[in-house]
Amino acid sequence: MDFKDKVVYQIYPKSFQDSDGDGRGDLQGIISRLDYLSWLGVDYLWLTPFFPSPQRDNGYDVANYCAIDPQYGTMADFETLVAEARKRGIGLMLDMVFNHTSTEHIWFKRALNGDEQYQSYYFFQSGTADKIPCNWESKFGGPAWKYVPALGKWYLHLFDEGQADLNWENPAVREELKQVIRFWKAKGVAGFRFDVVNLISKPKKFEDDGQGDGRRFYTDGPHVHEFLQELVRDTGIGNMVTVGELSSTTLANGQRYAGAGTGELSMCFSFHHLKVDYKDGDKWQLMVPDIGNLRELLQEWQEGMQASDSWNAVFWCNHDQPRVVSRFGDTGRYWKESAKMLAGCIHLLRGTPYIYQGEELGMPNAGFRDIGQYRDVETLNYHKILRERGLSEEEAMKVIQARSRDNSRTPMQWQAGRNAGFTAGTPWIGLPEAAASIHVEAEQNDSDSILQFYRKLIRLRKEQKLIAEGSIAFIETENPDIIAYRRKLGQQELVVYCNFRSHSVHTAKDLRQYPATGWRLLLSNYAEENSLAELRPYELMVWLKD
Ligand code: TEU
């Protein structure tokens, strides 16, 4: 499968479109919106998990890898979705959560019943309730071990206690997971996203981490590349579109996970660029985004992955991240300009762009005021932790409002009116006040909308081979307010200037030189041409030399 000139659209099924009025999105709802997705021009749909799950982590706690949770519909619905998408030239990518299963999975239930074969599918450690195996912490807060008194054993969970880590050292586990891949491959999917795939290889022994939460022991673990190559080889998915979510990885590892010819994945998500507003690296401490650091990190990964013929997924948004226009843009005066600038900045990089549902509309963060409006397990845990750290309710809510994963899990906004057309029932989570004016219906009818701009970017990727295939080099690298880069393919050249500020900024190069020398303005987020030697607020300028 090719992926360099393709665009992936991420759907969070629970919040995309409800078809039966139960207030939660479902597969029939996605089918009803395929014409919209085809109109937008996307090539693949990455669906986050819709497998049977107790929903402690909204489906990332999988209780059966080869079935459909009834809340989303039936296997027949899924087969219809695959067929209807294919008719529109769209392929499906499924989300494989192979680092852990739900504690409701039959494997874990058998382990709890004392079956030692299935206990070896996980990390069970004998001990007493007063002696935790080591001081690792869950990424959702609290200890990463849960004690089972009936067994006199602890089990490891890097995420929620309802998500028990699988022991990939056990060949039987690896064989079970290969069967899962073969099952969905036979259903005609086009590819897979692998959840926290760089955490699957754990160290032989579990020791305290005197420097942190333990992640340095299990991130990019000892056998991770070996396990991944074995999975890809034994399931024959090397020619499919595959992407790995890499939690806290390094560039050197990213080059291997997504390197041409490494026998691992087509591409990878790294997240370093999405931590430039984490004070002291802590997601739960607010800081104004450091745009200079953002450019450094994008440059490091873009030029680094290019050097090793490896491929990036390029993105701002997903179901775990706040809405980018609220995070790095402006939701007031420069809402349209900043959303379009952010879109252009990502879509013209070297890599495969991912659009997260609603990003193409410029949907903002949820804007919830009360913790009771939130649903996400990580959010609710950290609200408690922030209060225990001594923050007032108001201070804690300020952090939650900026950082909660629920910012991206509010329902997709389709039209004006009740629940923005998402459901005829009561939605499982509320909608932002902005839903009244920001929706597909309004933006499809506005030639200058953010949605139309995304559609233009997707089309440009198909028209201009340079965008998909060209080299990249960053320019204006001394400027802390601008991200700018040059793409080249043969004689063709593209330069992209992005002003990340709400005020005008000067560039080192006088932009007025471009029109005169065979360059043409390919794309801009301002109606009037720029005759200045500076970039206007949130201005995106893209010049092309054919
Ligand atoms: O996310 C991995 C992960 O660490 C994210 O939860 C994110 O980095 C974190 O929330 C930042 O604080 C994957 C899935 O995308 C996420 O939805 C799941 O909750 C998680 O794994 C466990 O499966």
Tell me briefly what this model is.
The chain is 29% helix and 16% strand.
Outline: globular
| Count of helical regions | 17
In this entry the ligands are:
1-O-alpha-D-glucopyranosyl-D-fructose
CATH topology of the largest domain: TIM Barrel
CATH classification, class level of the largest domain: Alpha Beta
Give the CATH architecture of the largest domain.
Alpha-Beta Barrel
Q: Determine the CATH superfamily of the largest domain.
A: Glycosidases
Number of strands: 20
Give the DSSP E fraction (strand runs of 2 or more residues): 15-25%
CA gyration radius, whole angstroms:
23 Å
Spatial ordering of strands, largest sheet: 11-10-9-3-2-1-13-12
State the major sheet: 8 strands, parallel
Low-confidence stretches: none
Q: What would you note in describing this structure?
A:
- The model has no long low-confidence stretch (mean pLDDT 97).
- With 546 residues, the chain is an alpha/beta fold.
- Strand 2 (44-47), helix 3 (75-87) and strand 3 form a beta-alpha-beta unit.
- The strands form five sheets. An eight-stranded parallel β-sheet has the order 11-10-9-3-2-1-13-12. It has a five-stranded antiparallel β-sheet with strand order 14-15-16-20-18. Strands 5-7-6 form a three-stranded antiparallel β-sheet, with no helix packed on it.
- It has four domains: 8-100 and 171-369 and 411-458, Glycosidases (TIM Barrel), CATH 3.20.20.80; 106-165, Alpha-Beta Complex (Oligo-1,6-glucosidase, domain 2), CATH 3.90.400; 370-403, no CATH class; 469-545, Golgi alpha-mannosidase II (Immunoglobulin-like, Sandwich).
- The relative contact order is 0.10.
- It contains 17 helices and 20 strands.
- Bound molecules: 1-O-alpha-D-glucopyranosyl-D-fructose (TEU).
